[in-house]
Amino acid sequence: MVLSLPAEFQIYDDPAKGSITVSKADSGQYYLLTFGAPPDNRLTPEICLAFLYVLDVIEDQLLPEQKLPLVTTSKIAKFYSNGLDLERAMTTPGFWDERINPLFKRLLEYPTPLVAMINGHAFAGGFMFALCHDYRIMNPDKGFLCANELEFGSPLPPPMSAIFREKTAVTTYQKIAIEATRFNADMALEHNLIHAKGHLSDVDAFIKANKLTKFAQSPSYGLLKAQMWRDIVKYCDEPHEQGQQAIRDNISVEEKRKKVRADEYKKAKL
To answer: Which of 71, 89, 93, 259 is 20 to 30 A from residue 45's alpha carbon, by CA?
Structure first.
């Protein structure tokens, strides 16, 4: 992969694994980060590292010159992101501790306003990725937000469950986690999962209406976000295996308790 820095935009590009392009909006109100990892914009090990690298470059080379909000969107019309490549996530050394969890943390603490322009489906990890932004605008004509771990029998690691728990209402979290609800734009707006319906052409008006270019100038913006989301960040900092072991330990303890209760019930019946 090669990162080049022409005068007007930045490109992170690998023909086999995906690309990230950064440009300045014609209005001058924000930077636009457009990413693509065919065929469905999964958060692969490579694209996670690419994101971390490009975000560092933006902060190091663009923000000192002009602090602006950052908008992310997809190069693939059908998908904002279809989540993780689960097989590769499970088999890539350091994926959780060095790639996806640091990416979530980086977004949560990013020093200027972050807007996800959700142009298509955002499933599972892609949904979480969008929620790590400060604001979300969703295509009103197509696409769903969904966490479908329930459907393929996968638990949510602590950082992922914390994103849903801290970023959504309890009733919405239930619909996400244990009902695998698919939210279209109208439902997403009703449940406060997004802040507006619209297309990329509507982003300028949204940023202006919410004074995001002004807020981007504040040196405390990232610090305030870090405090706001510290309960998510602490799980992102926790070693993945430690969190998974805690889940296994809790299940093991509860299984023992259930057996004790069942044995006591049987004795009482006898």
So the answer is: 71
